[in-house]
Input
Amino acid sequence: MATLEDVARLAKDLPEAAEAERRGSLTWAIAGKVFAWERPFSKADVKRFGATAPPEGPILAVRVADLAEKEAVLATSSNAFFTIPHFDGFSAVLIQLKTVTQEALRDALVDAWFACAPPKLADAYLGTLRTRQ
Amino acid sequence: MRFMGLLKGNQHTENFTPNPEDFARMGEYVAQAMKAGWLVATDGLQSSSKASTIRVADGKGTITDGPFTETKELIASYAILQVGSKQEAIERTTEFLNLIGGGEIDLYQMYDPSDFES
Output
């Protein structure tokens, strides 16, 4: 169980992550690239769920390294991680905050940050993470 | 040869803010196209409420500020393509329209200096 406040707090721990509000939804970016964002379902998204009820919000979208990584995350993570047709061919996954663990959320945000950070900054952060361990 | 594509606007494109994923997807597509070399330049155009029409006739100028009320006057974005044939330009344009979920683009061939050499 997590909330958008948790996302904001965890994102703030990442180097140079910037929070912004766009169209009433929160986004978190690194060097101008959005790596995580609040993603309410559009009418078209809801329609595509058909008879199935869409997962209850809030929903967070996070970038992943590439499409292979996306497949891997969806195959191995809990049901809190999912995707919708609008994200087909796009390297990102959706997370239902109500059902995700704090740890899985934190890992997803770190991975998303790495997927978007400029190589220099990513290397530097990787260095500090290794020293901490 | 170069072509200019003009994506026609409508009520929807007039005040359009894309989702973060659509914005990122387009950014990656544009970066890839520029790297591949067939896309020279492209930009989205802001709402016609910020646009103006400038006319000069018989040395007299008039300026009409937007928004443009005629939908057919609206342009949402432009792109300049560097391709080997008109067929390629049409294919690139069709691919782009599929990516954005449909729309209409006028594709013009641009003049090159070589067109004026005899």
Notes: Helices of chain B lie at 11-14, 20-36, 86-99. The first helix of chain B runs from residue 11 to 14. The first strand of chain B starts at residue 2 and ends at 8. Chain B touches chain A at residues 17, 19-21, 23-25 (CB under 8 Å).
